[in-house]
């Protein structure tokens, strides 16, 4: 038996409907490089389970009792910054889309997404790459309030920003630019600071809003 070259991406499923969690668990189980390590029925349970399991990715419903998914995402990203969150919901309401991204979700997907699309988004999130539902991306670009450029980016920072918007991970950028991942991390940190942004997702949206990258070039 040939073992996978890389360990599977560990995933925590968060949804207040057990049948939804069960369905997700069944079809994600078809991917040998994804392992569902736990489940939670609301935001409070999600935080407790995430701190216990330290998953790579959390699939987060947004509309739940006790604690909603946006609030849970905000707390989770503060406590476990290495764990990425994919918002998986049934709505494209602007305040939900904006709220999830501002809270720190790396991706925004709808529950009618195909199993292959969601699995790809999970692998992308584990690599630090953005995946957005096309309509969510359009609304975020339209509504994102990044303002004018606060500081001038260096040419290298501009290239890094373009590559982030095109879904490149730090490893991909390092390979593309023939530099170390540590150097890329420094560029990312500096450009986020200059632009007053908190995450790679916000950076991607900023690049789209200001014409640094095109929507057609972003994986959604």
TrEMBL record:
Residues covered by the Response regulatory domain: 10-126
Modified positions (4-aspartylphosphate) in chain numbering: 61
InterPro entries xrefs: CheY-like_superfamily, NreC/VraR/RcsB-like_REC, Sig_transdc_resp-reg_C-effctor, Sig_transdc_resp-reg_receiver, Tscrpt_reg_LuxR_C, WalR-like
Protein name: DNA-binding response regulator
Domain HTH luxR-type, chain residue ranges per copy: 146-211
SUPFAM superfamilies from the UniProt entry: C-terminal effector domain of the bipartite response regulators, CheY-like
A biological process term (GO) from this entry: regulation of DNA-templated transcription
rRNA-binding found in the keyword field: no
Keywords: DNA-binding, Phosphoprotein
Lineage of the species this protein comes from: Bacteria, Thermotogati, Deinococcota, Deinococci, Deinococcales
SMART domains assigned to the protein according to its UniProt record, in alphabetical order: HTH_LUXR, REC
UniProt superkingdom: Bacteria
PANTHER family the record matches: TWO-COMPONENT RESPONSE REGULATOR
Pfam families, A to Z: GerE, Response_reg
A single GO molecular function term of this UniProt record: DNA binding
């Amino acid at each position: 038996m040939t073992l996978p070259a890389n360990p599977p991406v560990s995933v925590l499923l968060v949804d207040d409907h057990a049948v939804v969690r069960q369905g997700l668990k069944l079809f994600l189980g078809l991917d040998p490089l994804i392992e569902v390590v736990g489940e939670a029925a609301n935001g409070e349970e999600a935080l407790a389970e995430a701190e216990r399991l330290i998953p790579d990715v959390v699939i987060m419903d947004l509309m739940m009792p006790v604690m909603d998914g946006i609030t849970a995402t905000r707390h989770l990203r503060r406590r476990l910054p290495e764990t990425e969150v994919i918002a998986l919901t049934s709505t494209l309401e602007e305040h939900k889309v904006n709220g999830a991204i501002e809270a720190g979700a790396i991706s925004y997907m709808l529950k009618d997404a195909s199993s292959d699309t969601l699995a790809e988004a999970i692998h992308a999130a584990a690599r630090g790459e953005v995946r957005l539902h096309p309509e969510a991306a359009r609304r975020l670009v339209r509504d994102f309030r990044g303002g004018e450029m606060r500081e001038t980016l260096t040419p290298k920072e501009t290239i890094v920003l373009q590559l982030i918007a095109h879904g490149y991970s730090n490893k991909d950028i390092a390979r593309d630019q023939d530099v170390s991942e540590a150097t890329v991390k420094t560029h990312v940190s500096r450009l986020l600071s200059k632009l007053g942004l908190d995450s790679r997702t916000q950076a991607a949206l900023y690049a789209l809003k200001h014409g640094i990258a095109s929507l057609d070039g972003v994986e959604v």
